[in-house]
Design goal:
The complex is a heterotrimer of chains A (492), B (225) and C (643). By secondary structure, chain B is of the alpha/beta class. Helix content of chain B is 40%, strand content 11%. Chain B folds into 2 domains: 14-158, Rossmann fold (3-Layer(aba) Sandwich); 159-215, no CATH class. Chain B has helices at 14-18, 20-28, 45-49, 80-92, 104-108, 139-155, 160-166, 168-179, 189-196, 206-214, and strands at 31-34, 60-63, 71-75, 78-79, 98-102, 118-119, 130-132. In chain B, α3 (45-49) links the parallel β1 and β2 (60-63). The mean pLDDT of chain C is 87. In chain C, β5 and β6 (302-303) form a beta hairpin. Chain C is built from 25 helices and 9 strands. Chain C is globular and about 95 Å long. A 3-stranded antiparallel beta sheet of chain C has the order 7-8-9. In chain C, strands 1-4 form a two-stranded antiparallel sheet. Chain C has a two-stranded antiparallel ribbon with strand order 2-3. The chains are: A mainly alpha (492), B alpha/beta (225), C mainly alpha (643). Chain B binds chain C through residues 13, 15-16, 36, 65-67, 85-86, 88-89, 92, 185-187, 191-192, 195-196, 218-225, and chain C through 395, 397-399, 401-402, 468, 476-477, 555-556, 559, 561-569, 572-575.
Chain lengths: 492, 225, 643
């Protein structure tokens, strides 16, 4: 049963490749077109079911992580797929978001590319091999190039090209980092590498970490390589923005965190992450304020805002203590929900109720009790205080200042919206696609609002995830000793 | 043989009758002159006020508003334009009030007895308590005049202000002759006469009828919810 | 269910009643009865609070949720009860004011009366949560909720009011973030300490537990000073302490009439409540060697935090009062005075002796009464004439005499003259300043009173005295629904001025709850060693003086006669109705000629500096992102990092 884990990557890829011939076959008929429209969603629904089955098998992965060998090749020669609570969380997040945000366009190519995105991001979350992650990362990047180029904006192609350049630059750096690691250790398997580190045989150089960080950080909107963010978010549709900002960036962050935890558990690495996180936070929020002051587009402001938020997430993850992981994951999840909701609301002019929803998202973003954003902020501050140190205290001060700046530009946006005539009425405007986007925002809003009442259980769940993730011993024991060989049909 | 002056008892409430003499004594020694100088005679006032002749030792000092003044000094000729303002000021003063006509122009026109623009006899327009003739009278004369006014007040003989209410029609007639039939002031003299209980036979007349026709009455602002 | 109801003690029932008020205000669509129902609910809340005060003691709520590993709780002691009384009282009077005709016209103008009522009720509810908080986390959470509720109430007026509300929001949120930093700091350290001491960490944020930890010295003195500074700044922003006061005047002035009365009366005093809690309950400033008295500085001169706070308070008294003198809008004038009076409260409390702290705390109540009275009177004038511009009003005393009387009593109270209640609290503060030998502070406070007297005279003269404008000749007094709260407040001011012992009892309960020394209060005032005050005697002397004057005027003197204002002396010149002989514009021309050079707009320039710095940083950072060659930047950064 656990073998089916690999289907999570294979099925969407297969679906993507099949879409082209299927469209040739079925494209002419009405019913066929309907099937094609929903094909992607169906695939994702299937993978979600598989996820559920695999996760609840036996004692469930919540108790014990699962490691699956590809093709029966033994670690470290082979690649393994590692499913623990952390990966499970992100798998579910990816799939659910894709289901919600699946575009309703008639263009088969979009569906195709999204399926590739699905496959590659799930692969990134699952994979336990460094180079395999890199491959999936490249696949994800290429798929996003295509998606951005297809955006309904005259500048889409140019923007996509510039994004490609930057991403390629990042990929070269990431490859260089991988090369350094490989040359020093001769292995590419994460668990194996972490065993080296723990045994004290090798200490991977900081340069490798920085290269990997910047390389993968392109997608994660890291400071220095996030020049593409405002341009891209300004051209793509709201749903794509939500996907990019909400889901894809988080997967990149997740990868970086895993690498840092396992391979670079020394303070210089966390400090580098902290510094880049602070820079990203400050840069993002300040420029968002600047954009809002100048009356720029809402999507551009939200783009800079997401840079800022991701900076905060980096700051949170830069502490490898359990609390740091907890805060980081909570912050990432919170941002996923809130940003997706905000991007949904950015599609059209808002009426009174939708503006209220915008206000709700905004308040949670800046952390007003009793919304979940407040509790996360509290945990973050406690985390930072507990770590101590001058840089951390600076991070606190800048973090709080960034929140005030956020409040400022969010309120500027809201008051600008209030001036529009449509605001007074309760009627909906915009075309049907925009209206559907606005309705989707309600889904996120209900999720956020509901979270208020389940703060305690949510906190405990996330805490459990954090504890399990930090436990490198568990990962090593599962992967190196207890990997499941699908060919053998049982434990190794 | 010494003449014994007989005092007239005046109307007032019961408390004032007890202190009547004290009232007159104090009033005579605390006279405020309205700082309103009409003509050339005003030049004689600064010497009277300043330290050489010092009328303040008599209790006489200048005051800025007619509401708080006792004495109206008409110092010199009164042109018609000025007389209008003098009438307004006189009517705005609170009783008891005293008018002193300084200089000969108030008595009989003086130097300007041939002029078309001045009023010749002040007595025709308002009741005058004291004339001080001269052109101009020296400070000693003015102080002497003030002293006789003070003595008159003490004896209760200077009540000419009542004559304005009791003979209003006569004075109004003279004013209308000079200023025209449309002449009016914001002050409701007849109303005041009735208020003070000083209506006499000369209060109403043909001139007051003309006034009633042309006057736009100024009602006091009543406080209301 | 009935057991559950019996389980409700008075605090729970108060909070429940408050929540019910919010619910009804939101849900009740029948707008013309919602006003009355909500008023009755506030009255019920007031009754409950009254019962709690007369019962004395401490009330703790049964509501203790465990969130995030911390146990939150609510507890009302004497101090919280005092502030709650003022809050509910102001809300009751504000709602009474808008229940009748005012609300009707508000609805006719197409605005949402329901929104106004609900936001007011929400404000009261969140304020009660704040005043009843018993641990740091519930304090902070309800602080945020109350701040945002106040923002919503201010923003309701739209237009310029919205801009002022946004300005407030930035200030308040920054302050809240400072407080948040300190709360998180304390929480982290306290949890660690609790873990080491092996005590239950859930209730560690209770004020008493935190105070104990402070006593045991888990923070060094510099750390404590830093915390205290941040907390004072954070809470002082809401209170309108210098130099963070710039938001308060426009925000309160431009809010909707009765809401402005409510906000001006009590909303900013919550900052004072939080400061008292922090200073006295957490940092234990009463004890010797406490943080407030510890001095730091040079060999020849040392400064204690107490002195610093006292001087900030005096600055808060003086500067806003003289800014108020220049205002031409009645509401702005009153709002600036509201800022200034907060300085008296802090000054009295910082002195920390029995008279001063009683004066400071009593000033909260007194200020609430006359600020509400003044705001309601001004709102009535706006209701009838449509303007609050002091250069466009005049002579309304003949048309709105009861509003005039309310305003008169209010400004006598604001100026702190007997027989009104303001005199008592100011006297207590002055007494304490003199007892402690703080002569310069005393002079500063007196300058503030002087400024107050001057500017409130301008208020009453330009509005009610002088000559009536032609367009206002048909103005009438406002209806009884609007007059009743004003008259109640006037009576309250007079009564509590005559018998200050009544509110002083509540003040005494508040002070003893915090640990400050309490003096012996009797019905007329206080008997202290330095000097005693008996308002009954003072008022009797004052009234007898007036009595003698009235006797002379009405009985001994001659008859008087009423005349028209145009029957007036102007150098003999005739006055015409077409000219206005009313001196209102540039009222203190002579004084302003002297002190105009001292108005340098310093604080506005400081604010501008901060904003400009922000804009500069944002501009330069945005250039980073708008470069056409982002790869170059990435390369540079990578090279830097690798190096």
């Amino acid at each position: 049963m656990s073998n089916y884990l690999v289907l999570l990557v294979i099925l969407p890829l297969l679906g993507a490749f099949l879409m082209q011939p299927l469209s040739q076959l079925l494209g002419s008929k009405q019913a066929g077109r309907k099937i094609l429209q929903n094909f992607g969603r169906a695939v994702i629904a299937v993978t979600l079911t598989i996820t559920y089955i695999v996760a609840t098998e036996g004692e469930g992965v919540l108790q014990l992580p699962l490691s699956l060998l590809m093709g029966g090749f033994v670690v470290p020669v082979g690649i393994n797929l590692y499913l623990d609570q952390f990966s499970l969380l992100w798998l579910v997040a990816i799939q659910v978001s894709l289901l919600i945000l699946w575009p309703a366009s008639r263009d088969i190519r979009q569906h195709l590319l999204l399926l590739v995105v699905a496959a590659s991001s799930m692969g990134m979350a699952l994979s336990g091999d460094l180079f395999n992650i890199y491959v999936f990362y490249e696949l994800l990047a290429v798929a996003t190039f295509g998606l951005v180029a297809q955006a309904p904006h005259p500048a889409a192609a140019v923007v996509s090209f510039r994004y490609l350049l930057l991403s390629a630059f990042g990929s070269v750096l990431a490859l260089a980092g991988i090369a350094i690691i490989y040359s020093q250790s001769g292995s590419l398997n994460l668990a194996h590498l972490s065993a080296f580190v723990v045994n004290g045989e090798t200490q991977f150089p900081l340069a490798a970490f920085l290269l990997l960080l910047v390389g993968f950080g392109v997608k994660a909107e890291l400071f220095g390589v996030n020049g593409w963010v405002p341009e891209v978010y300004g051209v793509v549709s709201s749903r794509m923005s939500a996907l990019l900002a909400g889901v894809i960036s988080k997967i990149a962050v997740v990868v970086i965190v895993r690498i840092m935890l396992l391979l670079f558990p020394y303070p210089e690495a966390s400090q580098a992450l902290l510094v880049l996180g602070i820079l990203g936070m400050v840069g993002g929020e300040w420029v968002a304020w600047h954009t809002a002051q100048r009356g720029g587009k809402l999507s551009t402001t939200l783009a800079y805002s997401s840079i800022g938020q991701l900076g905060m997430i980096f700051v949170a993850f830069s502490f490898s203590l359990t609390l740091g992981l907890f805060v980081g994951v909570a912050l990432a999840l919170h941002h996923l929900i809130v940003k997706s909701g905000l991007f949904m609301l950015s599609s059209a002019q808002l009426n009174r109720w939708q503006l209220g929803l915008f206000v709700l998202f905004g308040l949670s973003l800046i952390g007003v009790p009793p919304l979940p954003g407040f509790w996360i902020k509290l945990a973050m501050l406690q985390d930072l205080w507990a770590t101590g140190g001058g840089l951390e205290q600076l991070a606190i001060a800048l973090f709080l200042l960034a929140t005030v700046v956020e409040a400022s530009y969010l309120s500027k946006i809201i008051s600008t919206q209030m001036v529009s005539p449509q605001f007074k009425s309760a009627k909906l405007g915009g075309n049907s696609e925009e209206r559907r986007n606005l309705n989707l925002a309600w889904l996120y809003g209900i999720l956020l609002f509901g979270a208020i009442f389940f703060i305690n259980p949510l906190a405990e769940t996330l805490h459990g995830i954090a504890v399990q993730t930090e436990d490198g011993e568990l990962l090593r024991s599962v992967v190196l000793e207890n990997s499941i060989d699908p060919l053998a049909g049982g434990e190794q | 043989m010494k003449e014994i002056k007989v005092e007239n008892r005046r109307e007032g409430n019961i408390l004032s009758r007890v202190f009547d003499e004290l009232n007159e004594f104090c009033r005579a020694r605390s006279l405020f002159i309205l700082h309103y100088c009409t003509g050339c005679g005003a030049i004689e006032l600064p010497p009277v006020m300043t330290s050489r002749f010092d009328m303040e030792r008599l209790g006489v000092q200048p005051m800025v508003t007619p509401r708080q003044a006792d004495i109206l000094l008409i110092t010199g000729y009164v042109s018609i334009k000025t007389l209008k303002r003098v009438m307004l000021t006189y009517e705005q003063m609170g009783s008891p009030k005293y008018v002193i006509g300084i200089c000969s122009c108030t008595v009989n026109g003086g130097m300007y007895w041939q002029s078309y623009a001045t009023a010749k006899k002040l007595d025709e327009y308002m009741p005058v308590d004291l004339y001080i003739a001269g052109c101009m009278p020296r400070p000693e004369a003015i102080i002497s005049g003030l002293r006789s006014l003070i003595r008159n007040i003490e004896l209760g003989e200077s009540n000419n202000w009542k004559k304005y209410y009791e003979n209003y029609d006569y004075y109004l007639g003279n004013q209308q002759k000079l200023f025209g039939d449309e002449w009016q002031t914001p002050v409701d003299v007849i109303g005041e006469a009735e208020h003070y209980g000083l209506v006499g036979e000369g209060t109403y007349g043909e001139h007051t009828e003309i006034l009633q026709r042309v006057q736009q009455p100024l009602k006091p602002l009543e406080m209301r919810l | 269910m009935s057991e559950f109801l019996f389980e409700l003690n008075m605090l729970d029932s108060l909070l429940l009643l408050s929540a019910v008020t919010v619910a009804i205000a939101i849900l009740c669509r029948v707008e013309y009865i919602s006003g009355g129902v909500v008023t009755l609910l506030y009255l019920a809340q007031l009754v409950v609070v009254g019962m709690m005060i007369s019962a004395g003691g401490v009330f703790s709520s049964h509501l203790t949720p465990q969130l995030f590993g911390y146990e939150l709780g609510w507890l009302l002691d004497g101090l919280g009860l005092y502030f709650t009384l003022i809050t509910v009282g102001s809300a009751l009077l504000a709602t009474l004011y808008m229940a009748g005709e005012w609300g009707r016209r508000y609805r006719e103008q197409g605005k949402s009366f329901r929104a106004l009522q609900s936001l007011l009720a929400l404000n009261v509810f969140t304020m009660q949560l704040l005043l009843a908080s018993s641990d740091l986390l519930s304090l902070f959470i309800s602080w945020e909720l109350a701040s945002w509720a106040a923002f919503a109430l201010m923003a309701l007026s739209g237009g310029k009011g919205l801009k002022a509300a946004l300005h407030y929001m930035i200030y308040a949120f920054s302050g809240a973030m400072l407080v948040f930093a300190v709360v998180a700091w304390i929480a982290t350290t306290a949890v660690t300490a609790a873990y080491q001491l092996d005590i239950n960490g859930a209730g560690i944020l209770q004020f008493s537990s935190v105070a104990e930890l402070m006593q045991q010295g888990i923070f060094t003195i510099p750390e404590q000073l830093l915390m205290l500074t941040l907390l004072l700044i954070g809470f002082g922003i809401k209170m309108g302490l210098l130099p963070f006061h710039l938001w308060q005047a426009p925000a309160y002035a431009l809010s909707i009439g009765p809401a402005g009365a409510f906000l001006g009366a009590i909303s900013s005093r919550l900052g004072l409540f939080a400061i008292i809690v922090v200073l006295f309950k957490i940092f234990g400033s009463i004890t010797d060697g406490s943080i407030l008295q510890s001095s730091f500085g040079f060999e020849f001169a040392s400064v204690t935090p107490k002195t610093l706070l006292a001087w900030i308070a005096v600055a808060t008294i003086i500067f806003p009062t003289f800014v108020a003198m220049r205002q031409n809008d009645a509401r702005h004038l009153l709002a600036w005075h509201g800022i200034g009076q907060g300085g008296y409260m802090l000054l009295g409390l910082v002195m920390m002796d029995s008279l001063g702290s009683a004066g400071g705390l009593l000033h909260v109540f007194n200020h609430a009464t006359y600020q509400a009275a003044l705001f309601l009177a001004v709102t009535s004038v706006i209701y009838r004439t449509g303007t609050a511009d002091l250069n466009r009003l005049g002579g309304l005393v003949v048309r709105m005499p009861l509003s005039f009387m309310t305003l008169l009593i209010g400004i006598i109270g604001l100026a702190g003259l007997p027989p009104m209640n303001g005199f008592v609290s100011k006297w207590l503060v002055y007494r304490s300043l003199l007892d402690q030998g703080e002569l310069l502070l005393f002079v500063g406070a007196v300058i503030g009173t002087l400024g107050t007297i001057l500017s409130v005279y301008k208020l009453i003269h330009n509005m009610f005295l002088g000559s009536l404008r032609k367009e206002h000749e048909e103005v009438r007094e406002v209806s009884w629904s609007m007059l009743t709260p004003m008259l109640i407040l006037s009576a309250l001011i007079l009564l509590t001025g005559l018998f200050p012992g009544i509110p002083l009892q509540w003040v005494a309960q508040g002070l003893s709850a915090v640990g400050l020394p309490v003096a012996e209060f009797n019905l007329g005032g206080v008997m202290a060693d330095g000097g005693s005050l008996d308002m009954v005697i003072v008022s009797m002397v004052l009234f007898s003086g007036f009595g003698v004057a009235a006797l002379i005027f009405y009985f001994v003197g001659g008859k008087s006669k009423r005349v028209n204002p145009l029957d007036n002396y102007a150098g003999g010149h005739f006055l015409y109705a077409s000219n206005r002989y009313h001196y209102s514009n540039n009222f203190y021309a002579g004084l302003m000629h002297l002190i105009k050079p001292w108005y340098k707009n310093t604080f506005q320039r400081l604010e501008r500096v901060v904003v400009t710095l922000l804009e500069l940083t944002a501009e330069s950072l945005s250039r980073l992102y708008m470069r056409p060659h982002s790869n170059q930047l990435a390369l540079i950064i990578v090279v830097l990092l690798l190096w």
